Every structure is written in C-alpha cells, then in structure tokens.
Amino acid sequence: MKTMIGCCGLDCEKCDAYLATIRDDDALREKTAKLWSEMNHFEIRPEWINCEGCRADGVKTFFCSNQCEIRKCALGKGFATCGECPEMAGCKTVKAIHDHSEDAARNLKA
Predict the structure, then answer these.
(1) Are 16 and 9 in contact (CB under 8 A)?
(2) I need a surface site. Which of 5, 27, 36, 97 has the fewest CB within 10 A?
(3) Which H or E run includes 90?
(4) Residue 3 reports pLDDT greater than 90
(5) C-alpha span between 11 and 106 (Å, rounded)
C-alpha cells in the first residue's frame, strides 16, 4: 500500500489540503478553508490548510493531527491503516468515510 493512503483509506494525493501544501497554493487554501468551514459548520482558516499526508512525516491539518478519530484509533492500536484492523468491517467510525468513498474502502483492501 502506498504511503499516501490515509488511515481511513482516502488518497492524500487527491486531498486539496495536500495539493495546496505541495503547490504552495494560497488560492486553493482559501477555497478549501471556505468549503471545509461550510461542511463542518466551524471556521477553518486558510493558514490551517497545510498537510503532507496522514501517514507521512511532516505537517498535518489540525483536524488530521488532533481530531480525526479514525487516525487516533488506528495509530492507538498500532496499525498503519484501518485495513490492518480485524474489526474494520463492523467499524462505525470508518464506515462514515467508506459510505461516501468506495475508493477509500478499496484502497485499504489493496
């Protein structure tokens, strides 16, 4: 499994926060902050949109580093991703991602 697959199975290389970071694209940071603020009903500032990938060394968004229950669970159990967890099939936490992204579930099975 490639390193840029997050704990949940999402592909970090397709994430706007990752893209804005590697491109140093302030316009994309602004757009992403606005969209994520609307989606989460919480102000997210453009300067918070910096991430080098969920499982990669380096900076992560505040959510990914401190708030993501999926990442906390996987790392807490000593797993690189949820795909290593024998309880993944019945996990309600990661199910929320997989219900909206078939690719994420597929990435964990690859």
Answers:
(1) no
(2) 27
(3) none
(4) no
(5) 11
Q: Kindly give, in sequence order, each residue whose CB lies less than 8 Å from that of residue 61, ignoring residues fewer than 6 positions away.
A: 17, 48, 49, 50, 51
Shared domain for 73 and 48, answered yes or no, is no
How many domains in the chain? 2
Residues 100-108 have a mean pLDDT of: 92
Q: What is the pTM of this model?
A: 0.85
For residue 107, what are the domain limits? 68-110
**Is the domain of 59 the same as that of 76?**
no
The answer to the question of residue 13 being in a domain is yes
Task: In whole angstroms, give the CA distance from residue 27 to residue 24.
Answer: 9
Regarding whether 61 and 14 lie in a shared domain, the answer is: yes
pLDDT of 82 above 80: yes
Q: Do residue 61 and residue 104 come from a single domain?
A: no
The position carrying tokens 């708030």 is 67
Read off the pLDDT of residues 12-71 as tens digits, 9 standing for 90 and up.
999 999 999 999 999 999 999 999 999 889 999 999 999 999 999 999 988 888 889 999
